[in-house]
Amino acid sequence: MESSSSEDEGSTRDNNVDLNDDNMEQHMGLEVSSHLAEEGGLFVPHQQNAENPEPFVGMEFESEESAKSFYMAYASRVGFSVRISKSRRSRNDESIIMRRFVCSKEGFHMKKGNFDDGKKKRKRATIREGCNAMIEVIQKYYGRWVVSKLVKDHNHLVEAPSRVRYIAPEEYAGIEPFLGMEFHSHEAAQTFYYAYASRVGFDVRIRLSRRSTRDDSFVMRRFVCTKEGFTPFEESYDENKKKRSRTPTREGCKAMFEVIKKDYDKWVVSKLVTEHTHDLAVAPSKVHYIQSQSEVVVLAKSGTVNRDKSATPANLKPQLVEPVTGFSNPPPNDQDLRTDTKEVRQYAFGVEESQGLLEYFKRMQSENPTFSYAFQLDKNNCLLNIFWADAKAKMAYYCFGDVVTLDMSYRRNKNMIPFAMFTGVNHHLQSVIFGCALMTDETEASYVWLFENWLLAMCGGRPPVSLITDQQEAIGAAIAKMFPETRHCICKRHILNKCKEKLSNLYAVHATFEEEFEKCVDNSETVEIFEASWKSILDKYDMGENSWLQFLYSLRQKWVPVYLKDTFTAEISVVHRPESLNKFFEKYFNSKTNLLVFISLFEQAMAGWYEREALEDLATQYTRPLLKTPSNMLKQVAEIYTRTIFDIFQEEFVESLGYYVDKIEDAMVSKYRVTRDEDAHAPCTVSYDFSEKRTSCSCCKFETSGILCRHILRVFLTVDVRVLPEYYILKRWTRDAKSGFVLDESVRYNELCRDAMKYAREGSTSGEIYNVAKEALQMAFAEVMAAKKDIINRCPI
């Protein structure tokens, strides 16, 4: 028998915990656990991400404790704290048979009765916001605990505490606090004091807050050392209850920092005590502000990283570049130099910033050999360009590297960090990343360096089929040199945006120009139609002598869609970067951002991409799409394509039913005219080879996107093709798109590349040594090929 209504005493206590400013950090330390269920307590299907699994209904655990540890680890990654909301006990033996864990912001605080005892009571900050996020586990008859209820969405912002970085505001970097100091917000004051505490070597907590009686906004905040006050003595009223002995952590420290809001919306330091009654941390760079599974790095923005300087090696050797013997010191006025292109190339990265980033990359590679990076220096050993890529980027390129975009859009904004991304789209049409770079130099040589290191990092991968970039002469020259077989495409969106800038007067005077121009670019079905439309627009608006339009016309084969109909681009031009990433860049990535903070924040943003891909993989694996018509072909591809690609295919299939087919040439390769009443003026021609079972359409949708068009699907119905031929199923769009990637192979490749670089460096020091190295290399290569041939002969076909 079960008791369905009673809650155990522990759950009752947890449900009534009122977390004010005094015990918030203690709560975070207790509830945001870093324990991942790694001892076999977690039962997940093989499709689930074993390293960081997501909760789902039906998930199984060995025990209630395993379920609790898992959910707290999940909360730690996502960025919220957990409490026990409800429990249920068995009526047979009083054992727990149900547990419900909720976000600490679940529910609302109950209003207490107003008993006027003459004492002033401070208003406590409300932390409950009615959040519905929860997970409920019940014990099954076979002993395991199963997730029976789950809500993942929160009604408030969440941020993984392991990713929090405290950066002192630029104008206060390195400054000691003083009475009368002003801040534009209480958050800025808090960030400053936390960074100051990091430098000095102590922990901080919020001791007291005061809110306005008018709008409930904060008007006072007091920050104190975590050793402020004394650990209270708890009198035991119930000897039967076991209470764990807590180690006293408070020592009566008086250090504090109080800010109040003034009438002119500035926050001013009103009270300050800087002396401490205890010893400060020996290594302030390791001060923890939030307990989590990884350290919270606290950085002060003064061009340096808070770390033990004595631990920094004098000479560091980055991968794939010459040894770094040191970086030149930046000039005093860094801000002024950023406005000059040549100076930016020399001093965009500070000395200690560069060394810190190099240390970080070396540590990443030592932990995971598949991580690749490269630094490029100028003749003065100043850092010019940086490139890096991790294992996820390499796997993504192996599976989806046929179409690549080099996104340099943030390089154009002088207030942004000079950032570049190699991106593409996966089998869910989601953005994936193939590597990143910080580029302060835009010469052809620098882009050649970037492409060399990028392709080398991609497991010696094949060059992409098409590479999409912004319009820039140096990039075009580097692509022609590095990827002669790759189709270089210029982003159409970039071109059209530049037109609004270059032809701003024309856009302002003639309201119809933009529509006609874009129609000419997008809707021209043939080269002849485009040429005629382009000439017509030039004549109508008298722009025949315009140098910008003449320049665009000379590049038409690289950006006008009708000229790219024979090139596979995965229709990537219609896939825009997520809006959330745009806002993320605008908020965090500017010329004042510390490089290590930059990398950390970007990794956090990418974690969201990986999570969305994993969720879509899971949904595709366990759900089946709804068929709009009982077609054998739709049933076939529903089992092969991902949900996203199937939806596109099904839309084309359903639309094909509204088209008419006329045979215009009857032979072994027959031709059909496919049209619809409303667009009879623009029919498509489909050719079908009966012997090879191959077809093609004048719209070239399959050639550009890898998904059959409605015109071919309509002809398939006419010639009685009921099953989609295997030739027309591209693996990159299927559920199994990511199969076949062997990480061990990439590790072996990278190891050999590193050894080869050392070999080449030593072997080229003189002519005599070069001859010895060349002969030895030829002998070694012959032995490798002989061994490879022997393995092939021994393996049965």
From TrEMBL:
GO terms of biological process kind: regulation of DNA-templated transcription
Entries under PROSITE patterns matching the protein: ZF_SWIM (PS50966)
Location of the region described as Disordered in the Swiss-Prot/TrEMBL record: 1-22
Keyword Metal-binding applies: yes
A single MF term (Gene Ontology): zinc ion binding
One Pfam family, short name: FAR1
Domain SWIM-type: 684-720
Key words of the record: Metal-binding, Nucleus, Zinc, Zinc-finger
InterPro entries, per database record: FAR1_DNA_bnd_dom, FHY3/FAR1, MULE_transposase_dom, Znf_PMZ, Znf_SWIM
Homology family: Belongs to the FHY3/FAR1 family.
Entry function: Putative transcription activator involved in regulating light control of development.
Name by which UniProt lists this protein: Protein FAR1-RELATED SEQUENCE
